[in-house]
Amino acid sequence: MRHANGVSPRMRSWLQRFLTSFSVMALVALGAIAAAVPFAAMSDAASPVIAASEAPLPTNAAADPTVAVSQSACTDLGTCVAVGSYEDTNGVQQSLIETYSSGAWSPSEGALPTNADATRGSSLDAVSCPASGSCVAIGSYFDRDGNQQAFVDTLAHGAWAPVVVSLPPNAAANPDAQLHGISCATTNSCVAVGTYHANDAAVERPALIEILSGSTWTPLEVPLPSNAGSGDLNGVSCPANGSCAAVGTYNVMRDASGLIIEDTLPLVETLATGTWTPSEGAIPAAADTATLDAESVQFLGDFCDPTGLCQAVGTYADSGGNQLPLVETRSGGTWMAGSSVLPSDAEGNGTFAAILAVSCPPGEHCVAVGNYLDGNGNQRALVENLSAGSWTPSEAPLPSGTIAAPTASLNGVSCPISAADTAPTATTTPPPSTTTSTTTSSISTPTTGSTSTSTTARTPTSSTTSTPTSTTTTSTTTTTTSTTPTTPAASPMTTSCNIVGSYQDASGLTQGVLGTQAPGPGTN
User: Fold this and answer.
1) pLDDT at position 420, please?
2) 288-318, pLDDT tens digit by residue?
3) pLDDT at 364
4) How far apart are CA 137 and CA 106, in angstroms?
5) Which helix (H) or strand (E) holds 302?
6) Sign (positive or negative) of CA dihedral 419, 368, 500, 28
7) Rounded to 5 degrees, what are φ and ψ at 11?
8) Which of 104, 209, 373, 426 gives the lowest tally of CB atoms within 10 Å of its CB?
């Protein structure tokens, strides 16, 4: 649920953990692809070219609209839908839908379920469009009793229809339900992910998965690693019906010499043969795993292709107190934590950066987006491009008309491919020093939509905590080791992508950015 500052539930959780010492005007998720005002040129003539425009708003938008366009989805580069929120003239946060067609964006206020209290606020936080004219958006709102509920908004035959999603039986009366990500393999097969408040004492905030099959949404409290105290899923990618990877975080409380410490660890939920299985992502070699320090490694988004290759992104804390961007690759069931670098103007000691979303056309160039602090403490928009096995960073310059030192962030990227596109053949190359997380599973014959519990044995660099074990239908073991495996390397970019972000305009107001990254001169 977004509030007046335009921060999404996913970003709020991240900010609460990592930005307590910073004053941030708005870290917002924005979505889209745009007919645009050009960004400043990049240094390399063959580098991708980025263009952007400010998101238009409904006529009832406030003078200070606090826009948060959270995500977009395109069936091709000419047909897109973006969703988010804005503040109206009454100071109430409203759901926002942006539709791109015939070369122009058209804004509208999103419809809400019939039990919504329109004076309390609402937002749409993610969208997936499996076919032209068919989209599913997810969000949250307050009902007339003041309870925060999750809902889905479905576009069909030119009209949006909002529906409240049901929750697992253990949901609290005020469930504080939040959906952060959605992926639709077909028009009648979708998976949405998030979290909710439960009455269970053992896991107060379980991870939540909502599954659309046909026309019915079914809630699922997904299994967590056996020592988890809470969980939250931030993103999901389903390259095919029945095959998904959802990513997020889970929390573990441990006793370190009488000091109770809460670790935040990377969570992966994998759907295969009808069963969801939890596991832990890789822990980077540079992560802070000291016994008396709170470990923090978070997944914030992911992208998977039909071959089973996945990229997950996020942020982690190192032993020097820095927040660094996290990139991980899953190939052959193994998660590998790789290296990403920041622009040259990134702050030294006290570095703060995160990658929030990633998209990779099959066999092609990958694009990831996020934000970082420069040497003056200004939050800058970040673009990372993966080519030939290496990530190359750049600051995304903002449209004209910004303040001198604007707060800016990119939080979404989508790279649609038209039928005419031909993806280059991937090659194999070893990345820089990596960390692996190996998952081994023994899965019994599942029932569609079932779950499995897991036993997770963690071996951090330094820890006094042992992980409980148990005998389960599915046994999952996660280990952390350093290695230099081989991973598929993306080819140079030949497909345009839409990138999403926020910035402060010349008046210091938070506005939405709708942008396109296209192949640079000399690429084809």
Assistant:
1) 39
2) 999 889 999 999 999 998 888 899 999 999 9
3) 62
4) 17
5) strand 297-304
6) positive
7) -70, -35
8) 104
Residue 183 and residue 237 in contact, taking contact as beta carbons nearer than 8 Å: yes
- Compute the distance between CA of residue 415 and CA of residue 352 in angstroms, rounded to an integer: 27
CA distances from 344 to 369, 385, 392 (A): 16, 15, 11
Could you give the CA distance from residue 429 to residue 484 in angstroms, rounded to a whole number?
10
Contact indicator for 55, 82 with CB cutoff of 8 Å:
yes
Task: Give yes or no for a contact between 208 and 222, defined as CB atoms under 8 angstroms apart.
Answer: yes
**CA nearest to 488, candidates 385, 388, 368:** 388
Query: Quick one: 98 exposed, middle or buried, by C-beta within 10 A (0-12, 13-18, 19+)?
Result: buried
As a whole number of angstroms, the distance between CA 267 and CA 203 comes to: 15
| Chain centroid offset of residue 157 CA | 28
Which residue matches tokens 């606020």? Answer: 121
State the chain's maximal CA–CA distance in angstroms.
Answer: 64
Instruction: Name the token pair of 327.
Output: 């990139």
CA distances from 225 to 180, 182, 267 (A): 20, 22, 8
Which token pair is 136? 């599913």
- Among residues 354, 336, 314, which one has the least CA distance to residue 234? 314
The 3-state DSSP class for residue 123 equals: strand
> Model pTM?
0.80
Report how far apart, in Å, the C-alpha atoms of 523 and of each of 34, 47, 312 are. 21, 9, 26
The whole-angstrom separation of Cα 208 and Cα 364 is 32
User: Can you read off the two tokens belonging to residue 320?
Assistant: 């020097």
Q: How far apart are CA 60 and CA 62, in angstroms?
A: 6
Distance CA 310, CA 245 (A): 8
| Residue 445 confidence (pLDDT) above 60 | no
Question: What tokens were used for 252?
Answer: 């573990």
Which amino acid, residue 408? A
Q: Do 151 and 141 meet the contact criterion of CB atoms below 8 Å apart?
A: yes
92 near 119, Cβ under 8 Å? yes
| Beta bridge partners of residue 335, listed in sequence order | 330, 437
Q: Record the tokens describing residue 157, joined without a space.
A: 């035959």
pLDDT for residue 362: 63
498 or 201: which leads in pLDDT = 498
State the CB neighbour count (10 A cutoff) for residue 468: 10
CA angle 204, 313, 76 (to 5 degrees): 110
d(CA 115, CA 39): 43
In this predicted structure, the answer to whether residue 41 has a pLDDT above a threshold of 80 is no
pLDDT at 275: 93
